[in-house]
From TrEMBL:
All residue ranges annotated as the Carbohydrate kinase PfkB domain in the record: 4-294
Record pathway: Bacterial outer membrane biogenesis; LPS core biosynthesis
Keyword tags: Carbohydrate metabolism, Kinase, Multifunctional enzyme, Transferase
Keyword Kinase part of the UniProt annotation: yes
Protein name as catalogued: Bifunctional heptose 7-phosphate kinase/heptose 1-phosphate adenyltransferase
Length: 469
């Protein structure tokens, strides 16, 4: 589903430091956490935006970001998740929440960033995003953005449905919001209700009171594993239980954000409030069942493997087995039968062949600005597809000296130009001999060369043009 959802509110940088505890600190009765991993993610309004974007929603985030490393990290994480960010300048430091965790439990939370600072004026692009939204989620984390007068005036004037996810330290919702989404504890603080009676009676009584005070169309009070209680214009509340009980709860952090974002998304699609709350309960329940914030701490996709590292691993395996590593190099711009003959001959000299391939920049320096004809990625893929090639490493320098020093092959092979009596010695020969390697040459196939292939193609092209005139 695609919807123009605008999230506006305070964003924090959440960091989860995960490790193991095997001992107690010798100078204090405190556990010692041996760190194993650390994961950053947006928190607050940023998490709500992230969760909505992860479910195919077109999301814009209006938030306050400080001009520091934390603010830059938040912008990077949000943009990478597909969220469009309209930053409002935040004086001071980015607020951070650092959770130290072991065994699926939080041992300690460290908060950074100091007292909230009033944000600057929002840019016009942020105000235009509010005016063009299909729905708006005001995600308040008590840091002050939703007190900003210009933003509040803009929120009060929009025609799109507004969902207000409040914070006890934050301001009241602007009048006329479609739905407010406090949890039960927040509701009691916002209304001063003592909470006498059952949770259902408290949610109903205090929910109607908050709706009256804020002049909201409805209030959905989230009640954890019991779902939500919707207080609307009728006197009888709508109790919305989860679709199925959650068997195991590892981490509920972010469940409220998932609820509010799902409700706002449903309203953006034209759903009535009751249906939006049902969808929100189902979404939050599924989020918690999947591990909640723990699910977001899954390891990111691994970065593409460094070809040189892969080649080094191959070399180590071959040498462990007592084999011989062969390497050769070149531009291999247009792969032809001469190249294939050289590569097969080189592979026949050992147990693995590594091709050191000149990068595009290196080829331009050697051959001129019109080369290479084929880019380095294509050239590397073609070489790697050959059964006689075991690994390909691209190097950027004019000569292969640096990559050879790293790979240290047993045999270095070159062809054609360096074969025969009176031929100059290979420039890399002294380097290779330095670690006990051997340097050999193999012949080219006569009449096969990239330069000749390119010249022939251009000549035929010229003849075709002339024939057509």
């Amino acid at each position: 589903m695609s919807a123009r959802l605008v999230v506006v509110g305070d964003t924090l940088l959440d960091r989860d430091v995960t490790g193991s505890v095997n001992r107690i600190c010798p100078d204090a009765p405190a556990p010692v956490l041996d760190e194993r991993s650390a994961t950053d993610r947006p928190g607050g309004a940023g998490l709500a935006a992230l969760l909505a974007a992860a479910h195919g929603v077109e999301v814009t985030l209006v938030t306050a970001l400080a001009d520091d490393a934390g603010g830059a990290r938040l912008a990077e994480l949000l943009t990478a998740a597909g969220v469009t960010v309209h930053p409002v300048r935040l004086p001071g430091a980015t607020p951070e929440k650092i959770r130290l965790r072991a065994g699926g439990q939080t041992l300690l939370r460290l908060d950074r960033g100091g007292d909230p600072q009033p944000p600057a004026e929002p840019p016009e692009a942020a105000l235009a995003a509010l005016r063009g939204a299909a729905a708006i989620l005001a995600s308040d984390y008590g840091r002050g953005l939703l007190r900003q007068p210009t933003l509040r005036a803009a929120l009060a004037e929009v025609s799109a449905p507004v969902v207000w996810d409040p914070h006890p330290r934050g301001p009241a919702a602007v009048p006329g919001v479609r739905l407010a989404t406090p949890n039960l504890a927040e509701l009691r603080q916002l209304t001063g209700d003592a909470g006498t009676g059952s949770p259902l009676s408290t949610a109903t009584r205090a929910g109607h009171e908050l709706r009256r005070r804020w002049r909201a169309a409805a209030v959905a009070v989230t009640t954890g594993a019991d779902g939500a209680v919707l207080c609307h214009s009728g006197g009888t509340p709508l109790v919305v239980p989860p679709p199925s009980p959650v068997e195991r709860v590892e981490d509920t952090c972010g469940a409220g954000d998932r609820f509010a974002a799902a409700a706002a998304t449903a309203l953006a699609g034209g759903a009535p409030v009751s249906e939006a709350v049902r969808e929100a309960v189902a979404a939050a329940s599924a989020y918690v069942a999947a591990g909640g914030a723990a699910g977001l701490r899954a390891s990111p996709p691994p970065a593409p493997a460094d070809p040189a590292t892969s080649a080094l691993e191959l070399i180590a395996r071959v040498r462990t087995a007592g084999g011989t590593v062969v390497a050769t190099g070149g531009c291999f711009d247009i792969l032809h039968a001469g190249h294939l003959a050289t590569l097969r001959a080189a592979r026949g000299l050992g147990d693995a062949l590594v091709v050191c391939l000149n990068s595009d920049r290196s080829v331009r320096g050697l051959k001129g600005p019109e080369r290479p004809v084929n880019g380095q990625d294509d050239r590397a893929r073609l070489l790697a597809a050959l059964d006689c090639v075991d690994a390909v490493v691209v190097f950027d320098e004019p000569t292969p000296h640096a990559v050879l020093s790293r790979l240290r092959p047993d045999v270095w092979v070159k062809g054609g130009d360096y074969a025969g009596d009176g031929a100059p010695e290979l420039p890399e020969a002294e380097l290779v001999r330095g670690w006990g390697g051997r340097v050999v040459t193999v012949p080219y196939l006569a009449g096969r060369s990239t330069t000749a292939t390119i010249s022939a193609a251009r000549s035929r092209g010229d003849d075709l043009v002339k024939g057509a005139v």
